[in-house]
Amino acid sequence: MSMSTMNAPAARRFRFRRPSPLHLILLPIALVMTAPLLWMVLLSVSTEAESRRFPPGLPSGIEWHNYTDALRDAPLGHWLGNSALVSVSCVIGNLVFCSLAGYAFARIRFLGSRALFVAVLATLMVPFQIVMLPTLIMVRAVGLTDTLGALIVPNLATAFGIFLLRQFFMTVPRELEEAARIDGASRLRILFQVMLPLMRPTLATLAVLTFLQTWNDFLWPLIAVQSPEHMTVQLGLQTFQGAHTTNWPRLMAGTVISQLPVFVLFFVAQRFFVRSVATAGLK
């Protein structure tokens, strides 16, 4: 066998792939979507005078001290810790409570189950601005005002998480549960040892979506929290803006720092999104 014949599969594997005409549409859209992100990074390494220049342009140098100034002038590390605590707690709560509720709606038939599930879905159509005041009243009634608990407790379970997991529970064959029931397994054991291991991509998708929503939330922390020691990072960045002037490079540097966990989580969990969609399509 000649050397050219042996290298033929490798050549086919690394052959240049002709771009699709669809790329002509996707490339401009990608540039538009990444333009604000790139501009935020450029402003974070600019001087204050360059940030106010019109028309805007590229910075003349890299001002790394904007990042150290942002960490020094405000308790940014403490705010990041608060955001991490709130986000991780909400992720754990959604994975546990939404799994229990989704499994109950998918597999257990009880009086009013369908009506209750429709009521849960109906809450998805209600804007948060409508339920914001009743939620604040209930949080104040249990004594959680101006605490991290006020940010965690209302977000421990969501209607979207219940709906998402319920739909995936419906796609799992009932024969797996029946075999476990014959072996003497209880409902909870079937849920945690049979069903949930089959839904790891879906659970990862719910975890990432919950983390992103909680981490980037601004409106609810603005209402429920007043003390600086209980602020999340998104709320704390508001303090970088003054009444008459704003140091935009320092504010953009703090914003870049606050978004680093989001970027890392997105790139790590990107494959779970693809696997979750592919699994749903195959089923």
TrEMBL record:
Residues 80-269 form the ABC transmembrane type-1 domain. Belongs to the binding-protein-dependent transport system permease family. This is Carbohydrate ABC transporter permease. Its main location: membrane. Keywords: Cell membrane, Membrane, Transmembrane, Transmembrane helix, Transport. It is found in: Cell membrane. InterPro entries: MetI-like, MetI-like_sf. Gene3D superfamilies: MetI-like (1.10.3720.10). The chain crosses the membrane at residues 21-42, 84-105, 117-142, 148-169, 190-212, 251-274. Coiled coil: none annotated. It is a multi-pass membrane protein. Pfam families: BPD_transp_1. PROSITE patterns: ABC_TM1.
